[in-house]
Each structure stands twice: as structure tokens, then as C-alpha cells.
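C-alpha cells
________________
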Amino acid sequence: MQDVFIAGYSDKLSARPGETITFSVSSKATSDFTATLHRSISADPNPKGPGIIEEDASKYFKPTSFASRYQGFTPGSFAQSTFDLQANIKSDLVIKFWFMPTVLLARDQTLLSWGVISISLDQHGIINTKLRTDILLSSLIAVKIHNWYSLEMKLSASGAAILDIRHLANSEACLRAKKEANPVTGKGELFPISIKAPIRIAASFREAPSCFNGKIEAPEILVDGKLIAKWDFSQGISSLSVKTKTGPDLLLKNAPTRGVTGRKWDATEFCWRHKPEHYAAIAFHDDDIYDFDWDSDFELKIPNDMPSGIYVMRIAADGHYDAMPFFVCPPLGKRQANLCVLVSTFTYTIYGNHARPDFAPSWLERITEWKAYPNNPSRFKHYGLSTYNNHTDGSGICHASHKRVLFNLRPGYSTFGQSTCSGLRHFQADSHLISWLHNQQIDYDIITDDELDRDGLAAIAGYKAVMTGTHPEYHTSKTLNALEEYRDSGGGLIYLGGNGFYWRIARHEEDESLLEIRRSEDGIRAWAAEPGEYYNAFDGNYGGLWRRNGRPPQQLVGIGFTAQGNFVSMPYHRTCFDSEFDWVFEGIEDKIIGDFGFSGHGAAGFELDRRDGKLDQGMEITTLAQSFDEKNQFVLVPEEVLTHLTNLSGGPEADVKRADMVYFKTETGGQVFATGSITFCGSLPWNEYDNNISTLLGNVVSKFTRC
């Protein structure tokens, strides 16, 4: 698999003045690469739209050349001992563990490797044990995927070698896997064997380790009748390491999945915190990759006079380039504007390197024509995929991190290469809003999910208005708490997206860049978590939808996800003519609003939110405008569906496939404006920002920031 010519990533996505961002680069060039800093205004490559707009920011980082060097990375998760496991084996060796393979591949998959000893699974499902390079024993029958087996390998001074593999549910059925033979090693006597080496579980020690796909539980090693190493994976499930009382601790490389069902799980308990012995397994995958661990090439200490905003560090060599966005926030407690834009970096990361199933090579033609960002995750899957993709074994990817090259977090990246509009999502789609703010000369500060999660209400306190982008989908309990506290303390919340505040995620305490999503029993989802694996390993909380965790989006912003379609959009129709709300529509004579745009050609589209009186805690909400799915291009989300004939609303399905634009005040003086559509911001730049959506949002921002 071919690597891109030049690429990089930063150790953090956001920083405040005085903090340092470190950049790591891999370049195949023989010449130096150059690094230049720019402020990002628009990331839309569409030549019919704003285009890519960036301002020179060399005042804060002078263009600099650095030596090129190639830096590689190694996908695949495994556990490795923190120090060498040493043994002088005189008479016998026993290695035991439980395992459940999840896929057979055209190569070997290593279950355990220690010095001259290795145990692996071949393409036919046969277990092979090796001493040095020679196959010592092979199972007589093949194991089946998604089945639990015990494995015990015994080597003795008598010359007997036994490989005993038994099926969990029917141990008698697998007795044929037991074999006794005199080992032929070609090396003379079998014992003594001297080993001083680290141990790896689920991978070999080769440069490209033959990683295992599946679950492993309770490994232990005995030498000459004495236990020298034993690990209990049911302990410390939230950790990125495994502690032991016998032998070395284990470090978990590339974040294999914990909090997964083990061989003892019997469906009597679904939370690993309550019966950890039922969750004594770790799931490994050969494509786990959550930290490239590249050496750093240069850094930027954020100057005190650097304005809050979105910046791009561009690197280039021999006609190739990459562009690494990052976000500069104001000093904590020292806002520089009345308006705060909340950037959804958690959502960006969760979607990082989403390889779309509908990607086609024909998309590359438009990329070339538009001079858009050239690299697509579908063409470089070995760089690690998103939580909207699946592992090699078909299981869903539930971990995400920004400490790797994220192709779709780049200015000029187009998500929908076949669309007749700009086809943007996430960072690039949010730039429609940023470019509008600059066009309207509205001052703003940037705060990201990272600061909101870490600092809570303090991150946004004092702003007259906090504005989201197009798709603030993924949140921790801390970010939701902060937004609710801000609103209820009199703040103004402007929600400009759709399908927001939808999924609950967890952030790892040992590595804050690592995020976890469990796609539990409900919702529009790319994959479904296995029964018994709905609780986050990182924090032990129930995963899935916030709605299923008792915090539906309607409680925060008055509306919540109701329908999804293809990347198509519709206009809104004004429904409120109460003079009390004329301020929203000041300067707008049209009853049809937003029948245009660079996202789906309309302001209401792709994913829609609506009101639901059963979920909004009885708030006095005013519906300002609505957009209905009149062409039947959308589907109701699963959590709203009861049967093929009925849904939770109790009425016709057509009535709830809609976007509601709403406004309400809280009893404590807070206020909320929400659009209920992902594509709303795509209409802002239309006709050089002179349109009724632009006017409407201008009215809202003016109202919220002058209160």
C-alpha cells in the first residue's frame, strides 16, 4: 500500500496563547520541505462558491524549511511487556490462554510471541506453534471464527509436546486437537531453553507484525512448574495498560478494545463494572492505529497577540503539499468578542478518515478540476479509518484519535465527490459560517470541544452568544453540562446544525486525544455494538444515544434528530407571523427562505431536527419556519420508528420528516435559536452573502450579542 508523498499532524487541535503545538511530518522528498502559516477563512474548493480563502499569518510563524524524512507507522494493536521476561527452562514449559478468532486471513495471525516461541493462526484456521523458525506442533482440526477456545501448549524434558485446544461449549468435540509427538527441532535437545525477551500478545516481533484479529483472555506462562507470568484482563478495564502481580505489566499498543465480553459472559449482566470477570477479554485488530508516534519536526508557541481563529499550517515539497488545521482560542476567562463559535473537534475526530462506501474513482476528476485536496481515505485505508468504518473482521471501529494524518480534516476536502453542489461536511462545511462572519465583519472567538470538556462553563462564560457549526453530533457529559449551564445562566445558544448532541462519547483519562463511541441499540449508525458491549470501556458509562441516556437534544436546544436523506436540501417556509418575532425576519419579505445553497442546494437538508413536546421538558418554544420532506427523499430515524405502520409521534410519518427552526427563552433568561438542518450554513455564502438566510442569521446574531 502506497503512502502519500508528504503528510503531517499536530499533537493537539487547539491551543491558547502561551501554549505550544507540535507538528510531525513525513516527507518522501530529497529536498527540504517548507512550512507556512495561514489563517483559514473558507475551506470550500468549489469555484462557484467562496473558494479556498486564507490570509497570510507569517507574522506569527515565519516561513521555514526543514529537512525531509520519511516516517512510517505500523497498524495493529497488541499487548507488550514492559520489560523482558526471562527464563532458563530446564524441564518443562506451559503456555495457556483463551482465544476467540474473528476472521481468517491469507496470512498468519500471531496469538503470542516470546523469544524463540510463537503461537499463530493460519489462513485455514490451524493453530501452529513454533520453536525458533520450525513448526513444532499444529492442531489437527481448524478452529471456527467467533467461537471461544482454550489453548494449552506443553513442552517437557521427556520429549513430549502437547497442544491441547478445546471448544468452550463442547470440549469433547475438540479433543482431536490434542497431539503428542517427539519434537524434531534440528537443534539437538529441546531443553534447556534460555529466553530473555519481551512478550507480545496478539502480534509478532517482525517489522510488520502479524497481528491477531479477535479476543484473548487469561494468558499465563509456567516454567519448570513455577508460574512466571499471568495477566487478568478483567482488572483495570479503563486503562491502556494491564497490571500484574506475576511477571511484567503489559502496555497496550494502538488501543485495543476493552470492556468486551469474554468467555464467561452469559447475558446476566450488561455492564462490565458489575461483573468484570465476564469481561476478562481484550479485542485486538490488525488495523487499529490511533497514534502514528512520529518524531516532531517543528513547533509553534501561540503568541499572545495571535487572534482567536482557524489557522492552517501548510507543508510543501517537490510539488506536493499537506495542510494541517488548528484552532487558536483566547486565554481562559479573557474573551475578545461577544460571540463564541464552538468548533466540533470531537465530531471531526470521530469522523476522521471516513472512507465512504460510495467513493468512486470518478470523484478524482472533480478534485483535479477544482484543485481540491487530493487525498481521500478510501484510497489510503492503511492510514487508519474512522468510527464510521469497520475493522478487518467486520466489527465496528469504536476508537478515534487526531494523532495521525486525517485526510478529511483538510481545507479543500470534498466529502461527496458526486454531488452537484460543494459536497462539504464538518470542517469544510463549517467554513461557510466562518467566511460569513468575516464577510459580515462580525467579531468572534473560537472555543473547541476540547476546551469545553476540560474547562466546562468557564470556557464559554461571559459570551453573549455561543454558536455551533453544522454538525455538533458527538458530546461528552462535560460538554453537555457546560452548554446547559451556560444557557441556564442567561447565555444565548445558537444551534446552526442538524443531528446535533446525538451520540455519547467518552474521553480517555490517560490519553485525552483518544475518544470512544459505543453504537448501542438505537439510532442511525454505521455499525451496531455487540450485545453486552454497550458500556464504554473508558468511563464505564452506558454508551449510545444521549436520548437513551435520558438527555435528548430537545432538552438543550428544543429540537432533535428526526429524519435523514441523501445530500439533498429544501427551503424553509415561514410559519410564524407574530409581531413579537418580526426581528428574526427583518429585511426579509419572502415566505420561502433558503431555496438555494452550496450544500444540497437548500437550507434545510441531509439531516433534519424537529420539535417533540414529549422530550423538551415543556419549554415555551416558538416555531419560526419549517421544511417538510414533500418529495419523500428522507427516512425517519430508527429511534422514532415503532413498526412499518407506526412511529412514536402517533401521526403520519410525513408530518415528522421535517426541519423546525425554533426560538425559546429559559426561565433564567437564557435564549436559544436553532435551525434543525445540517445544510443551513451552506446557504450563507450564496449570491456573495446577499440572501435571506444571511439576513436572517444576521438578525439573530445581532439580537443575541446586544442583549
User: Anything to note?
Assistant: The chain has eight helices and 43 strands. Residues 692-706 form the longest helix (15 residues). The radius of gyration is 28 Å.
